[in-house]
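so my prof wants the structure for this chain in the tokens format not the other one, which i didnt know existed until like an hour ago. anyway here's the sequence
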Amino acid sequence: MTSAQEAAEVVARLAREHGVSEDAVRTVFEALRRGGGTMAQFSHAEFGGMSQWSSGMTMVGDMFNDSLKAKLDAIAGELSRYLREHPVEHPDADFVVSCRSGGTLHAGSWWPQELGNPSSVGSQNDMRYAVFPLKRRLVIDDHGQTTSYDTGDHQISGVSQAQSTNSTLTFVSQHGVVRVSELARADSSEPGRS
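here's what i got, hopefully its the right format
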């Protein structure tokens, strides 16, 4: 049995066990693959829209639906274990998907194209971010100004945004909470940059 067949069987089994579509489980699986098996950020209607998962942190679009959070945590936890036990040599060869529905990751993207595909993207209020672990970059677009940061050895696995007047983003890595202000700036650009 090929790894693709085995992965398809895992997806089908988890869909049956948790009462969701195979498409929903596949979306989580693909997001986990992009996140190195440790984090996922995606959008799917069966999880209430935009959702995130990393070990110890589960967020679904339907914020107060604890049952849905538990379902995502169980599915993502098992898929994460599967990915650790079955590492993918060339992850982009099997699946290349977007957190958005349809299209390619670069279609209409706002981050520098030379960074390639992000492991995760997200936005809140007028601030958006994209994480590029292979390039060691975090790119943030804050009200039209795009800034790149060097993530160093941080393996970013989660994000949160303070709901205050300055709307600051903080990230979680293997070293704990990472404030953007602690990262070295790699570059900066104004709106209209090509």
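also thought this was worth mentioning. The radius of gyration is 17 Å.
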